[in-house]
């Protein structure tokens, strides 16, 4: 069974370097407006709260926006479902410094919570059928680890992190090639013993994959009844219960329930990260 590494933590150095990169992007030569309107000694208290129900993910990230010059308090753990109006965190410090950080912090926090909230909508049903909800590589460049972490923190599962982490043979790799020959060649050259997964959209490809002995199948754009037939064929093959099976392609909150009792191990959903709606979170300032 294919089991990719799960990103249930984020390296401290990674978080710090990314935050520094993000802040430099937003504030390359100072926050001109704030410097012209707020005195450098002015102190403020900022309250971070949510204006809608959301699944919170930010516990591992938010503290690194603030150093010892701030008094920062965080009130929730990652994965907790928050009610509208919940106060996530409070921070007190120099007003100029908080305003410099505000937009970057919100952009990242809103995205991570938006991903987590959408993941939870899927997992609340999928967990009952022991079906994993998987992310994909359809992430924003530079944000992949944050996206992957948000998925895992909300109860979803991480597919391969990158192109170096596993072998996934898709239609663009085939392009009139002999599939049987291609799979044999890949198995012979796979000296790192990476898991080999084959994307299939017909039963002829499936039969060849079973013959050569791949580790998993991605059933692409198949209707639930066809998925069920494919699963039966796979499970009845030699070592069929050890083969990883995921469904993908146009699966969303409207139609995904029909796939849950087909016998698959997982559903991969690109929209978890490629078209996520950011959570409605805001920061309220109180100048002290």
| Order of the strands making up the biggest sheet | 6-11-10-9-8-7
Number of strands: 12
| CATH T-level topology of the largest domain | TIM Barrel
Q: What Rg do the Cα atoms give? A: 23 Å
Helical run tally = 9
Estimate the global geometry from the Cα principal axes.
elongated
Helix content: 25-40%
General description of the model:
- By secondary structure, the protein is α/β, with parallel strands linked by helices.
- 36% of the residues lie in helices and 19% in strands.
- The protein folds into 2 domains: 12-122 and 277-287, Alpha-Beta Complex (Aldehyde Oxidoreductase, domain 3); 125-274, TIM Barrel, CATH 3.20.20.
- The protein is built from 9 helices and 12 strands.
- Strand 9 (216-220), helix 8 (224-235) and strand 10 (244-248) form a beta-alpha-beta unit.
- The relative contact order is 0.17.
Write the layout of secondary structure elements.
Layout: H1 12-26, H2 32-37, E1 43-50, E2 54-55, E3 71-74, E4 81-82, E5 87-94, H3 95-126, E6 132-134, H4 144-153, E7 167-169, H5 171-174, H6 179-189, E8 196-200, H7 203-212, E9 216-220, H8 224-235, E10 244-248, E11 266-268, H9 271-274, E12 281-287
Parallel strand pairs: 6-11, 7-8, 8-9, 9-10, 10-11
Antiparallel strand pairs: 1-5, 1-12, 2-4, 3-5
């Amino acid at each position: 069974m294919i089991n990719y590494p799960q990103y249930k933590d984020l390296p401290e150095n990674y978080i710090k370097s990314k935050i520094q990169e993000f802040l430099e992007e937003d504030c390359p030569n100072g926050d001109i407006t704030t410097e012209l309107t707020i005195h450098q000694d002015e102190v403020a208290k900022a309250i971070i709260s949510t204006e809608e129900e959301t699944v919170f993910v930010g516990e591992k990230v938010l503290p690194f926006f603030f150093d010892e010059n701030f008094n920062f308090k965080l009130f929730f753990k990652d994965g907790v479902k928050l009610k509208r109006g919940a106060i996530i965190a409070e921070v007190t410090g120099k007003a100029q410094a908080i305003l410099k950080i505000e937009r970057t912090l919100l952009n990242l926090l809103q995205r991570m919570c938006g991903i987590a909230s959408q993941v939870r909508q899927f997992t609340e049903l999928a967990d009952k059928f022991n079906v994993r909800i998987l992310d994909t590589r359809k992430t924003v460049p530079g944000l992949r680890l944050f996206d992957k972490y948000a998925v895992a923190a909300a109860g979803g599962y991480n597919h391969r992190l990158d192109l170096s982490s596993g072998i996934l043979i898709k239609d663009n790799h085939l392009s009139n090639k002999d599939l049987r020959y291609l799979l044999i060649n890949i198995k012979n050259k796979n000296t790192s013993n990476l898991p080999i997964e084959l994307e299939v959209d017909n039963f002829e490809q499936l039969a060849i994959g079973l013959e050569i002995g791949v580790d998993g199948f991605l059933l692409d754009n198949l209707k639930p009844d066809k998925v069920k037939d494919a699963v039966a064929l796979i499970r009845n093959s030699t070592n069929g219960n050890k083969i990883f099976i995921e469904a993908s392609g146009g699966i969303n909150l409207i139609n995904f329930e029909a796939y849950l009792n087909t016998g698959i191990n997982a559903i991969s959903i690109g929209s978890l990260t490629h078209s996520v709606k950011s959570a409605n979170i805001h920061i309220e300032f109180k100048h002290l």
